[in-house]
Every structure is written in C-alpha cells, then in structure tokens.
Design goal:
The chain is of the alpha/beta class. The protein folds into 2 domains: 124 residues, Aspartate Aminotransferase, domain 1 (Alpha-Beta Complex), CATH 3.90.1150.10; 246 residues, 3-Layer(aba) Sandwich (Aspartate Aminotransferase, domain 2). The protein is 39% helix and 14% strand. It is built from 12 helices and 13 strands. A 7-stranded mixed beta sheet has the order 2-8-7-6-5-3-4, with helices on both faces. A 4-stranded antiparallel beta sheet has the order 9-10-13-12, covered by helices on one side. A two-stranded parallel sheet has the order 1-11. Helix 5 links the parallel strand 3 and strand 4. Helix 2 runs antiparallel to helix 9, helix 3 packs parallel to helix 9 and helix 10 runs parallel beside helix 12. The longest helix has 18 residues.
C-alpha cells in the first residue's frame, strides 16, 4: 500500500505550476491539474471535430454533473442550476426580492463581503445593514443583533474572501430559521473544502463559483434555491431554457401564446452554456473525490498551521482570526510591520512566489498542492524583503 508521502508525491505531479511557481493564490484562482486540462482539451477537440453534433449529449452530461453536485450539498437536482457567475445569481435574487418582498424590507450582511454578494442588491435599491467584525470575527449573535422588524433575510459568505474568517454557518442558519428569515450564502471560498448541507444549515439560496477552489478555471457558478424560495420569489426574467417548450419540441417555439416558467431551478437557465468548461469541473470533482475531501482538508489544515508557525519568524501581524480553529480557513491575511505590503507582493512575484493584496494587506492561501518547502521559500523571501 502506498504511504501518504508517496501518495502526495503522485498527486503533486498533476500540478506543473509547481515547476515554476510557489503558488499561494487559490483564493483568487486555483491552477488547473493536468488531468482537468486534458478533459477540457478533449471537450474542445470534440467541438473541433464534430461541431454541434453532440449538443444534446453535452446537455445531458451537464444535467448529470448537476445531480452530482446536488448530492454533495445535500439537496435535489431540481434545486440547482449553473449561472455564469455569482453576480448574475444574486442579480436574479435581488430582482425577485424587489418585486415580491414587502415594501420597506432590508437585509443584514457583513462589512467584509465580496462585492458580488451585495452589489446586485444595492443596485436594486435594497437596503443592507452591514455588521462590522470584532478582531476579524463575526459571531452569529453579532449578526442577529442587527436584525430589525423590517429585516427579511441574512446574506453572507461562509468564508470571507479577505481575511479567511470561517463563519459558524450551521449555528447562524438555525438562528435565522428561528426568526423566520431568509438565509442566502456565498460559499465560493468554502466549497468543496468544507461540507455544505443546505437542509441542515437552513439555506434558502446559495452560490459556489468554482474558479477559486474547484481546480477548473472559470466554469461558472452552482446556484441553489429551495423550492419554497422559488414559489415565493420566482425569477422575474427568462431565457429559452428556462421555460417549457411545446410537447413536440425541446425548443420553446410557440409565439403569442405565453410561456410557462419552469418550477425547478432550471427557471434561471437563460440559454446555452459552456459545456467544455463543465467537462473540466466534472473531472476536477472526480480528482478531489479520489483523493478524499477529508484528506484534502486535513492536508490544508496542516500546511496552514505550518505557515502560521513560520510567520513568527518575520515581523508580520496576522490579521486573520486564527486562534480559534473553528474560525480558521486556508486564507491567511498578514500585514508586514514597517514595510509596504504592495511592494512585498511584487517582490515575491519577482521570486516566482504568488500571493495577493487584499484590503491593503498580503493574502496567502494554501491549497493541498502546496508543500512545506514552498512555505519555507515564501518566508525566506519575505525575510529578505524586510531586510532591504
């Protein structure tokens, strides 16, 4: 039987990025494993050779992928679809809420939310009450204190994109349910590393964009809505794949007869999608499940703990709330004392080490393809920069 070290050595061979970069930017976009790249190339090769010949077959493969993802978040395939990105999904929701929710309503959200979560609502004129963190932390109690008589829902990310704070999502979901409010969650920085159970967490709508931790490039967004949500707040917009066709066709060719919106989550389907990208997503999910999502999570936790220990060697302030392991994620935000964070990130890049600037600080995100040697290299170069 292969030991763990040999197992990881084989897995890491799937990431040629390691030959030239120490890549700590999965919270922005993960590099693509070779097998995922090959799946995408194969899908485009089919398009190159056969054109539209296998359109219905590709559509069926996307439906099977949606069933697979639905199982992973513990829901029915009737409750999930793909949208182009999270912003579009939240634009759907904001438009429906604007039309069907009681006048004068508001939402509660978090001060550090990524713009895709909140811009569509504010653009529609929906008031949002923003809760500010304490030492980077948002407790469910803090969030619920902002609820007033006009609040109809809580909107938040499972993991915050900037400092990596991980919310007590199940506890908050229970508190939101007890108040009879909507619970809308952006899980882009959490899934598939952390488990999602839409039923147990009492989630009404959820998005996951896969280019962060999905290892597949930009392949759209998984968009979940509960049956109850769609009944109360149906989509205000429609495309040809979101309405029922006549009995003798799969294309809604009827004219001046009106269209019946699909009752399931397919009502959010505007039209044709990038089947080739979804071939990559399907392969990426297979790859991670073969490794084991729990094993991946354990390795990321170990690497993140090692990073935090090594950061003690340099004059850096850790801004992420890392003392409580329940709040920790793979995303670590630091501030170099007495030095320019922006210049430090550029200095790292010149040494082929990739991090990011967020909120004026250095964001480091460890993934399972990283290793301790790369972390040591990151720390050495930061030490060198601080000595300049």
């Amino acid at each position: 039987m292969m030991n763990d070290n040999a197992l990881w050595e084989n897995i890491l061979e799937e990431f040629p990025v390691k030959k030239q970069l120490a890549y700590f930017h999965s919270a922005g976009m993960s590099p693509m494993p070779t097998r995922v790249y090959e799946a995408v190339v194969k899908a485009y090769k089919s398009l190159n050779l056969y054109g539209d010949m296998y359109f219905l077959h590709d559509l069926q493969r996307v439906e099977e992928l949606l069933k697979r993802l639905a199982t992973m978040i513990h829901t029915s395939e009737n409750n999930v679809c793909f949208t182009q990105n999270s912003s579009l999904a939240y634009a759907f929701l904001a438009s429906s809420l604007k039309k069907y929710a009681p006048e004068g309503f508001n939402f509660v959200s978090l001060h550090d939310e990524f713009p895709s979560s909140v811009v569509p609502y504010e653009f529609q004129g929906i008031p949002i009450k923003y809760v500010k963190p304490v030492n980077g932390v948002y407790t469910p109690e803090m969030i619920m204190e902002a609820v007033d008589e006009n609040t109809i829902g809580v909107l938040c990310s499972y993991v915050q994109y900037s400092n990596g704070f991980r919310l007590e999502i199940e506890k908050l979901g229970q508190m939101v349910k007890e108040k009879g409010l909507l619970f809308i969650v952006n899980a882009t920085q959490a899934f598939p590393i952390y488990d999602i159970d839409t039923e147990r967490m009492h989630i009404d709508a959820l998005t996951v964009s896969f280019h962060k931790w999905g290892l597949c490039g930009v392949a759209g967004t998984l968009f979940f809505t509960s049956e109850e949500f769609r009944k109360k707040y149906p989509s205000t917009m429609a495309g040809w794949l979101g309405v029922k066709p006549p009995a003798n066709d799969f294309i809604p060719t009827q004219k001046e007869e009106g269209f019946e919106q699909l009752a399931h989550a397919g009502q959010y389907n505007f039209g044709t999608m990038n089947f080739q990208a979804y071939a990559g997503l399907n392969e990426a999910i297979t790859f991670m499940e073969e490794i084991g999502r729990e094993k991946i999570r354990e390795r990321i936790d170990q690497l993140t703990s090692y990073l935090l220990e090594k950061l003690k060697d340099i004059p850096a302030e850790i801004l992420s709330p890392v003392d409580n392991p329940d709040y920790r994620s793979p995303i670590i935000l630091i501030n170099l004392k007495g030095a320019s964070n922006t210049e430090a990130v550029e200095f790292l890049r010149k040494h082929n080490i990739i991090t990011a600037i967020r909120a004026g600080n250095i964001r480091i995100s460890c993934n399972f393809f990283n290793d301790k040697q790369e972390i040591d290299r990151l720390i050495r170069v930061l030490e060198l920069y601080c000595e300049l």
